[in-house]
Amino acid sequence: MSETTETTYKPTSPNSKLDFASVWEYDPAPESTDHVEVKEKYELFIDGKFVKPSKGRYFSTTNPATGKKLTEFAEATQKDIDKAVKSARKAFEGEWSELAPKTRGKYLFRIARMLQERAREFAVLESMDGGKPIRESRDVDIPLVAAHFFYYAGWADKLEYAFPGKTPEPIGVCGQIIPWNFPLLMLAWKIAPALACGNTVVLKPAETTSLTAMKFAELVKDAGVPDGVINIVTGAGQTGAEIVNHKDIDKIAFTGSTRVGKIIQQSLAGTDKRYSLELGGKGAMIIFEDAPIDQAVEGIINAIFFNQGHVCCAGSRLIVQESVADKVVQKLKDRMQTLVVGDPLDKNTDVGAINSENQFNTVNKYLEIGINEGADIYQCDCELPADGYFIRPTLLTNVSQSNRVVQEEIFGPVLTIQTFRTADEAITKANNTPYGLANGVWTDKGSKIFKIGSKLRSGVVWANTYNKFDPTSPFGGYKESGVGREGGLQGLSAYVNLK
Amino acid sequence: MIDIPTIPIDQVAVEERVKRLNSRSIKKGSKVQALKMALSMMDLTTLEGKDSKGKVIQLCNKAKQPHAQIPDLPKVAAVCVYPTMVGIAKKELQGSGIHVASVATAFPSGMAPLSVRIADTKFAVEEGADEVDMVISRGAFLSGEYQQVFDEIAAIKEACGEAHLKVILETGELHTYENVRKASDLAMDAGADFIKTSTGKISPAATQPVTLVMLEAIRDYFYKTGKMIGMKPAGGIRTAKQAIQYLILVKETLGADWLNNQYFRFGASSLANDVLRQIVKQETGLYQSGDYFSLD
């Protein structure tokens, strides 16, 4: 498939004189998969037990790096969702809500520790199922997952300090729907605060990346978490809709596309269900001429090529001051030549596989749109594996604010580059999008960071860095990027009623 | 007055970049290749007050034959000694293709009148040094006397004649990455063929973040002028693993053209044996006892 991309889009030849090929190549350094077990199929996890789906239907998932089938998951339908919600309700009204808060914390601490113990296994599975480089699943995803459980475990018996003068109470049964870009991390962002606040959950992972969620279900069983507190049901959009529309669910937490977020918001209008939504983004990176340029280039690489650009807060628009634009672009192009693209399980891989065939087609469609809109395209010269879904890290230059590739979320390793002359122009361009999840500013001047940062309309503004996450820091969007915050003290608000 | 602009350097991001490059996993053939490359880039060094003719001869023999049992080992790049030892080393290394490098300019402090430092340099070159490792006046640099530092480097460059000039910045005394960058730019503008981190007499000596900042300075100089300047981290590099990490920095910052001993050197005394031990390990699957490696 990559070959078709080749013939359609002619990458401009690199104009750099530095030679990053040949002389000394890294040999393959694949992470071993011997220690992980992938079953032939996975059932639903309801009421502490693995149960068959009521209609007996299963769907398969592929390894996007090979295009080969990995395993099968059960498709949860209305009856299964009903069973899961009943079990969550029973747990909420029974044992779980009666527990001393510190005991709730104890379970979360236990989950966190077990995740650390099994970190290698989870990292390998995450890379096999989702295509992300093992370097990221090992060094970023899984450590953050554990950190998130540790962090909210600490809050479990301290909630009254989080909301002084008020009495926080759990909401009840939470329906949670998570995306495919950070499967286990998004699960942690949802489950950890919900449980810390005393709620019970019915969670649906994305249909292309359910493997680590089902492994997590096994871990939940091993941890002795009371039955029904965590229920995990697999399925696609229809299964998600059943959760959203279930009458006995008190709160919906969703991370995914703005399009689906809007549908959820419409279906919940007029109901007493609470909701929090974390949706799309089109983050801008503003590089001023006084920025540390080499480090800014490294920041850009992390902002757009981290996780193949499958990041809702990805810095997908570069807005660079005209006086340094040529320099930045030249350095960026050279840096891109050193990116290792390929087998997600190779420890040297920087950019792995596109998550699914569907997303592969979407990104390629946007590349075509960009070309048709008159953009110049630059891609790394790297070899791509013959099988699987891979796209070369890409720059689109000669684009403007009115282009679709600048306005719409591509969710792939594609960066558009625009220039600005004055700070006001940079702010206007950065804010000129329906999204408002994250932006980044690079300058050596501290005062400028605060001045510009306060005018950017997004939930997150990174200064001289990008894509940094910490459980103590709230995350969420302005405008069409979402409602509510996850992470930090603020993340607790999404899972309590205040008296 | 010479005007060397301050290039902002983000300390956190530089160190993060190094950390990321350190996560590269070098195995099998690429590891053997790296180890041999590291050996060929080594400036085997002895810079002690107690250096004697005997010691220098031993070191030269080690340079010519790093390990008796392993055939086809590359030669080291150079032997690095004090000016008074250059003649001895030159004689010992005659016909071997191994260069003689000499520290000069009142190494390691540089605290002598310029005329003395020039004479020191000329002496080393007359004795047969192929390469001269000079130190900059850090005191003058830190007090903003950039013109003085520039002129001194230019004067030493002239005194070197045909010999290659490596300019030691002594980054351990410069303290900030901005200073390292500025001193690198200054040295390259003044005629350095190589820029070098340290004398090895001050702690910290070479570090990877400092090396990265200097490699980026070399890259900018190359973008600007098309001229390739060499890089030599020195001091504190003791293990093969560290050496490979440095090679990764070079590969991913400057690329293939710098991965040879014309443009990259290690200044080290104990590194060679660990590299040899790793080469033996790669070839036989076993680690040999330290006693199998000559301690010259």
Q: What characterizes the major β-sheet of chain B?
A: 8 strands, parallel
Query: H/E order of the elements of chain B?
Result: HHEHEHEHEHHEHEHEHEH
Q: Work out the helix count of chain A.
A: 17
CATH topology of chain B: TIM Barrel
In quaternary terms, these chains amount to heterodimer
Q: Would you state the CATH class of the largest domain in chain A? A: Alpha Beta
Class from helix and strand fractions of chain A:
alpha/beta
Q: Which geometry of chain B do the CA atoms define?
A: globular
CATH superfamily annotation of chain B: Aldolase class I
Query: How far apart are the first and last residues' alpha carbons of chain A, in Å?
Result: 57 Å
Tally of structural domains of chain B: 1
Strand order of the largest sheet of chain B: 7-6-5-4-3-2-1-8
CATH H-level superfamily of the largest domain in chain A: Aldehyde Dehydrogenase, Chain A, domain 1
CATH topology of the largest domain in chain A: Aldehyde Dehydrogenase, Chain A, domain 1
Q: Based on Cα principal axes, name the global outline of chain A.
A: globular
Radius of gyration of chain B: 18 Å
Query: Which architecture of chain B does the CATH hierarchy give at level 2?
Result: Alpha-Beta Barrel
How many strands appear in the DSSP assignment of chain B?
8
List keywords for this structure.
heterodimer, A: 499 residues, alpha/beta, Aldehyde Dehydrogenase, Chain A, domain 2, Aldehyde Dehydrogenase, Chain A, domain 1, 2 domains, seven-stranded mixed beta sheet, six-stranded mixed beta sheet, 18% strand, globular, disordered N terminus, B: 296 residues, TIM Barrel, eight-stranded parallel beta sheet, 11 helices, 46% helix
